[in-house]
Amino acid sequence: MALSKSDGRCDVLFVVSQPRAGSTLLQTMLAGHPKVTAPGETWLMLPLIYAVGGPRSAQDAPYCGKLADQAIECFAAEHLDRGVSSIQREIGVAAMKVYQSVRERTGADVLVDKTPRYYWIIDELLHFMPTCRIILLVRNPLAVLSSILSTWATNSVGNLSSYRADLLEAPARIANAMQYDDSRVKTIHYEELVRDTEQTLCGLQQFMGLDVVNGLGNYGLAPKRRFGDPVGIHDHTSPILDSVDKWVSHASQSPVVWKLLSDYRYVLGDDLLGRLGYSGEKLAAQLQSVKPAGTGIAPSLQSQLRKKPIEPVRSVFRLRNACALTISKLGRRAA
Known about the structure:
Blueprint (H helix, E strand, L loop, with lengths): L11 E6 L5 H8 L5 E5 L4 H6 L14 H15 L4 H23 L3 E5 L7 H7 L4 E6 L2 H11 L12 H14 L7 E5 H6 L1 H11 L24 H4 L10 H8 L1 H22 L3 H10 L11 H4 L6 H24 L1
Helix pairs in contact: 6-11, 6-12, 7-12, 11-12, 12-13
């Protein structure tokens, strides 16, 4: 997909990824540059972009989103020279003014807005804000799911439904954006970021149009934010290489986690994983090498992603979870 291009330094950089893909780490390191301000996850552009020409759910607003879209389109077509595009352009201008005010207060040249769920609006960001830049931060999706299970869905039973879009929508949308022929979009992989931190950060600073500052990988004490990584970023002062394959160890310790990761690999498929930069066969082999006992009766990923499971179904999840863990423990004792 060919989009308009922009050269020179950007004013706003968006970091887009799956949640738990390392965006807080990346933002924290970039924030060490004296000409960068990084206010955290702003979520600012999601409601602004969806205000015009975007699908809205009646559950999220006290009005019918479809009717609102129709009314706005009718109004714009009749009274504005460029129709809805005129409104979108002004929304982009307004957002840039907000970001500019933050930059001016901090004396920064570039603002980094890392809001992973901007994966919903990658095209719109490029359209509404032509001078922005976007970093697509890609991490092994199985490591992402493992991190979600460790950090947010800690009992691994029946509470993955809140992350359905993060797991199923985000990878495909990010993979599509990776194919854009657009100088404003750059892809980096989490594994590359932690293995070759300084070189990766050097390339990103150049992409942002900044003078290169060395040593950003040693970020020290990260500021605590309401949104973002609540755990790992505060336990270390620089990237940790062990985080790359931590998901394999996690899978080996629990038949439930192993089953969920294995199902996730199958659901994404080798083609999508390959487009993201990962070998489905290699991931399958890694899982097979650490397969614990009890995976045969562990709850499936499909069952975990049900939007609102009723209590009897949730109870079955818990029973299968308990049985799988018991079988796994007995297997380890026998070994």
